[in-house]
Amino acid sequence: MICSTRISWPLALVVSLAFSVQPVDVLAAEPPRPLVVGHRGLMNLAPECTLAAFRGCVAMRCGFEFDVRRTKDGQLVCLHDPTLDRTTNGRGNLADLNFAEVRKLDAGSRFDPAFHSERIPSIDEIFALIAEQSHGQGLFAVDLKEAGDGLEDRLVRLAEARKILDRLLFIGLTIESPDVRSRLKKASPQAPTARLAATSEEITSVLADKDSDWVYVRVLPTPDDIRRIHSAGKRIFIAGPLVAGAEPANWKKATDLGIDAILTDHPLDLAKQLRGNSANER
Prior knowledge:
This protein is of the alpha/beta class. Helix content is 35%, strand content 14%. The chain has helices spanning 11-19, 51-59, 99-102, 123-133, 151-162, 178-187, 203-207, 223-231, 241-244, 248-257, 267-281; strands spanning 35-38, 63-70, 76-77, 140-144, 168-172, 194-196, 214-217, 235-238, 261-264.
């Protein structure tokens, strides 16, 4: 979601930049724009955790977050809840149905009849969408609702096959389980992982964790925390009540601090706010 910025330079400044012995980095003081990540896709305009919701995000040059679960026969699919009742016309536990049975369910009509043809997507379908339609842009957060029994390795292999591993961020069970992070890193050292820092004091532990690339926070860090995290070569992902809703004031605070990615239920509103900020800086 980063666009180029045009700045009208006064002639005197251009001359001073051209001949100064010490280069002047005028833009260094401005933090980069955070990556926008749509929670369960474009969930306010399309049924959550469906390809329709995810396509909406990538069409708007936003990333998205999606959940990973297994069917009875071990296929990896995207569904937030362990049960089918809330978002589909099915009943009971997802884990009690095999993949063929799951694919017969309607995952769109409960949101709106216009989406009656939407199905619970496989994870490989989501990876294919990212690879083919996201134009090389965006961050895609993989929320592991289950783990173990080879799940981490399978996810990494699917992502590698689609050449998108470096554009993912593993969250969910990843942020609190050292075993999950270890298995992801064993599958590939390049698998991007996050670890939760519930308080400012916990940031030090995350920075020392070799299996964590991102610091996952639910509160706004201090400017000093931000500097420590970035100086350690890690990045910051914020989620939770402060930013999930329509929270323009908190979005601005996170942006001004230099947080790297924001997970929200309102990705288009956040993206519009960020674009507006860039326009005002021109």
